[in-house]
Fold Putative aminopeptidase W07G4.4-like protein.
Amino acid sequence: MDIPKLIYIPKAQYSSQISNYDGLIVVFNYSESISLKTSILDTYSKEIFDQFKIDASIGKNISIIHAESAPGMRIILVPIKSKFDDTDDVRIYGEIGRKFIERVLEAGIKKPIIYFATEPKNNDGNINKDFINFKQVTLLGALSGLYIPLEAREFLNKSHDIDEIGVMVENETEDISEQLKIVEAYQEGRQLAQDIGGTSPERGNPLQCAEIIENIFKKTTVDVKIIKEYSIIEKEYPLMAAVGRSSVCVPKHAPCVVKLTYKSPDQTKVKDNLFFVGKGVTFDSGGMDIKVGGAMRGMCRDKGGASICAGITYIAQKLALKHVNITAYLGFVRNSIGSHSYVCDEVIVSRSGRRVLVANTDAEGRMTMGDLLTEARENVITNKLYENAKIFTIATLTGHVGRAYGPYPAAVENGQAVKKSVGRTLQDIGQIWGDPFEVSRIRREDYMVVKGNGITEDVIQGNNKPSTMTNRAHQFPVAFLNLVSCLDKHGTNSDNPIAYTHLDIAGCYGKVPNNWGLGEVTGNPIVAIASSFLK
Ligand SMILES: [Zn+2]
């Protein structure tokens, strides 16, 4: 992936680097008086105070001042206004990173240095641990502002407006080059997720999504397998085949399954075998339970889960991680409407042999992932990976998660995942990486509503109301996924428990636009997942 390069500049090299850059961005803690006493800023104190004489707002908001000997003769002052306490979190740095990069682009700056002049400190003078990743979060915020979506890149024939960013820190306690490599890998993975997830229904049809992934992994160690034959999909993944049934008559809309495998270069060091199953619904009309009242708008972004799975695999290979193996199953399918559409009241036998009573064709995400989840379970069993396996489903699954948690994703765990603190890890690590998670539990009520009568059906797919009108509508689909994949046989009191966690990302994957456009695809929560589990 093509992203701006991040170059570490030790302070001792600053003066020799000034002519190579064209702007100095100073990120510092806001205070009433500008008292920026650092070795770098002392050089410019006259210019800063001269400017302050004619503009009292200098230092209060993002401002650009002229300084003859600075890179590009300009300094961009970026105050962080936060108490660095429980009323705030490290996202403030990401938000300000996004803001200053927009200002920098307006100013025509092409190659800036970002200089972290101060640190987020508690009253006792120690750095606040919740803000410990402030540099990385700032950089990820800045890089997010430089991302140009895939179709726009193709139309405009350019990839980004800034090729390189220098990074300098006042408190040089460590070489941050490794941190910058991680930020670059996260940004590249996120960009891949945005590319796939943000494409329009035609540019991002199932086969084109598979092609983007195939191309990106071509020169890597990741093994890519694509299943396009509908007859095989029907046999191996009957639930997903039902969703795609009416799309097959248009070849470019036909479904496909993409399997990705990343193997650690040193198998003796592997601690985690991670399995990801992603929902890649390239357009969701709702099917025969058609989305009405304008609810179909934006439904080309229903492939966020699959896109994140691809991005996570990308990050692992980019960092050549030794402690993890990754297997990802991505189901790309278009939920079309036609005379051959699947309908409610059908009973479909799943890969696991359990019979699913279809209730609502708009609940196609759990159908798409159900059999892929079964395959992940089979993989764990065949390779006897129970001890160190973690299975995830990732999907823009329900509107309910947004009603429950607003813009935050939810991790919904089975008993073994709770035991292994999977959700807790996402919550704790996501918090300090500016990509926060909420944690939900599957309850017995969730199983009760999806359990079939055992005579004519084994599992009920859902109800016939929108998720936003249904209680526990982001939790009960996980009970369905547990039952349909037979993961319920691997509970905490079984001989072979398997940790399974579902991530509902519908609330965080896209931003609500302030106009009538489609809004931005964020690629969240890829940073939380990567920082929690990619070691
Ligand atoms: Zn749907």
Q: What stands out?
A: The first strand starts at residue 5 and ends at 8. The chain has 18 helices and 17 strands.
